[in-house]
Structures are given as C-alpha cells and as structure tokens.
C-alpha cells in the first residue's frame, strides 16, 4: 500500500524564523496533496493544497513545494508565530481515491 | 457558517459495549468521511459517503464497525462490542461538490475503551 511519511517527528523554531516541514510520499501516481494543521484537541485544519501539475503554491505566510522527481513535499511557514505551534501533516490522493495521511510533525515555536 | 460538528467530544466505555458517534457535516456538503486517529499515528480512512451512492466501506477494520448517513446529512458511526484497540480519536470530515478535494474536519470524538 501507499505510505506517506514525515522526515522529522518534531521541530522547534524561534519565533520570527521560517519553518520548513517535509513529507515524503511513495505513490508516484498521486496527483493531489494537502497540508493540514492540527492543534491539540482539535480536528485537522486545511492549510494549503497543490496539484501535481504545479511545483509551488503560495498562501498567506505558507508555501508548498512539490518535487515529483523525488516524491517530496514541503511546507514552508514564514515568520513563524506562537500560534503556528501544532502538528502538521500531509495527505496524498490519486485521482479521487481515498486520501493517505502522514503521521505528522509537531512544530513548537519558541517565543 | 457552522463547521463540522461531532458528538460526543469524549466517550469512555467498557469493553464489550456498543458506542455511537455522531457527525453533523457542513450544510450542503455532499461528501462525508470518517477517519480514525490513534495516538502518534496518521489518519486512517474508515468510510466515505458521497450523495446517494453506495458508501465506500473499504477502510472499516472489522464487521463490528458500521456507519450510516441519514437523509444525506447526519452520519452515525457505530462500533459494536468495543475492544481496547478501538480507543482513538474518530474524526469526521465533509466536502462540497464544488470543491470535492477540500475536506473540512470536525473536532473529533475521543473514544476510550476500558
């Protein structure tokens, strides 16, 4: 089956610094990817998505990069704030089939 | 507008008992998903409802798990004869026909089986 994994289970950054969270996926046919943020005690919250026909997509303070050659996805958060502390995980999807989710990276922002 | 809601937020039950978990999706959303999130694990797909189509039950781990969606809106996930390994957070998500790939999640129900 497919696997979606995150390189680092935890990440600590200083407030104001940029954060980079990485994700590897194994299904080369996956054509849609989502990053979610999950705060303690809450359900996952959609952050940003990207389709396989793109390499980069920017949102507000967040950028997602997709490298299909090495099947790698990253989430960049600019000027990280304490409110960004959460677990971030990626999800992949192939042509409308079910999503596969990674286990998550816990981001801690140090004031 | 209101997001996805789930009830109860926490459920503690004894091994062998049946439980029902409820999900109220965003109004007008045609698709509804159930996932399970165990401690330190990623989301595990359980079941998917889309409009009036037959649900995709391929993720249900055993025949003790079942779900229904009445009137194309509210969904109930039922776990019969609960086991300790059923302890997890059960998450519901919904999406619209216009943006079928963007799932909005509820806060989850934390199930603890003693």
Verbal overview:
The complex is a heterodimer of chains A (111) and B (114). Chain A has 111 residues and is mainly beta. Helices cover 0% and strands 54% of the residues of chain A. Chain A has strands spanning 4-6, 10-14, 19-25, 32-38, 45-51, 56-58, 62-67, 72-77, 86-93, 100-101, 105-110. Chain B starts with a strand and ends with a strand. Helices cover 0% and strands 46% of the residues of chain B. In chain B, β6 and β7 (75-79) form a beta hairpin. In chain B, strands 2, 4, 5, 8, 9 and 10 form a six-stranded mixed beta sheet that branches. With 114 residues, chain B is an all-beta fold. Chain B contains no helices and ten strands. Classes of the chains: A mainly beta (111), B mainly beta (114). Chains A and B meet through β4, β5, β9 and β10 of A and β5 and β9 of B.
pLDDT < 50 stretches of chain B: none
- Silhouette of chain A: globular
Got a strand count of chain B? 10
State the order of secondary-structure elements of chain A, H for helix, E for strand.
EEEEEEEEEEE
The share of residues in extended strands of chain A comes to over 45%
Largest interface: A-B, 22 and 24 residues
Return the average pLDDT of chain A rounded to an integer: 87
Q: What's the count of strands of chain A? A: 11
Please render the helix and strand layout as text:
The complex is a heterodimer of chains A (111) and B (114).
Chain A: E1 4-6, E2 10-14, E3 19-25, E4 32-38, E5 45-51, E6 56-58, E7 62-67, E8 72-77, E9 86-93, E10 100-101, E11 105-110
Chain B: E1 5-7, E2 10-13, E3 19-24, E4 31-37, E5 43-50, E6 65-69, E7 75-79, E8 88-95, E9 104-105, E10 109-113
């Amino acid at each position: 089956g497919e696997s979606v994994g995150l390189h680092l289970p935890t990440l600590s950054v200083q407030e104001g610094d940029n954060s980079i969270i990485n994700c590897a996926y194994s299904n080369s046919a996956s054509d849609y990817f989502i990053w979610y943020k999950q705060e303690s005690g809450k359900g996952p919250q959609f952050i940003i998505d990207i389709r396989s026909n793109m390499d980069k997509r920017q949102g507000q303070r967040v950028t997602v990069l997709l490298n299909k050659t090495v099947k790698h996805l990253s989430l960049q958060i600019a000027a990280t704030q304490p409110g960004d502390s959460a677990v971030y995980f990626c999800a992949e999807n192939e042509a409308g089939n079910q999503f596969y989710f990674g286990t998550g990276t816990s981001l801690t922002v140090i004031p | 507008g209101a997001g996805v809601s789930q009830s109860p937020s926490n459920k503690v039950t004894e091994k062998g008992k049946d439980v029902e978990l409820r999900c109220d999706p965003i109004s007008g959303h045609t698709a509804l998903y159930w996932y399970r999130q165990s401690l330190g694990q990623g989301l595990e797909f359980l079941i998917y409802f889309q409009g009036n189509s037959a649900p995709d039950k391929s993720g249900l781990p055993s025949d003790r798990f079942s779900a229904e969606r009445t009137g194309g809106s509210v969904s109930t996930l039922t776990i019969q004869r609960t086991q300790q390994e059923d302890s997890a957070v059960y998450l519901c998500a919904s999406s619209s026909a216009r943006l079928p790939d963007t799932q909005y999640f509820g806060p989850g129900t934390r199930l603890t089986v003693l």
